Amino acid sequence: MDKLNVICVDDQREVLSAVLHDLEPLSEWLNIEDCESADEVLALMDELDSEGECIAVLVSDHVMPGKTGVELLTEVSQDRRFSVTKKVLLTGQATHTDTIQAINSAGINQYFEKPWQAEVLVESITRLVTEYIFDAGLDYTPYHGFLDPQVVLERLR
Question: Whole-number mean pLDDT of the chain?
């Protein structure tokens, strides 16, 4: 069974803690990692990749010191190793232009404004991980009870 990782990054510890708390129900079948900067995320992704682990989803805040979330997600989208990693922008401060840039250059799969609804976040991450499993060509059967049934049905047609 491949080890699936979801990485969450936000420079505000209280926001990051809230995201981790909301994603806790998924920790039964996913490894949820947290980082406080874009550089920390990139180092973690390199480490996980070198250990043969899968990075299914990257959830990033937008306004962070150093690199913005859009810059981080764009960089990740251009790295072949993470071509099927799903990308989520979670922010309360992105402008309309930032959002369009994230969609166009970073290829984000989901956008959430703060404050988000926990149930919607969990459903979205479940859907994105399910899509990742199929896009990466992984065996979905070990995760079958956790996956988004609608995506499974669509992908098995």
Answer: 93
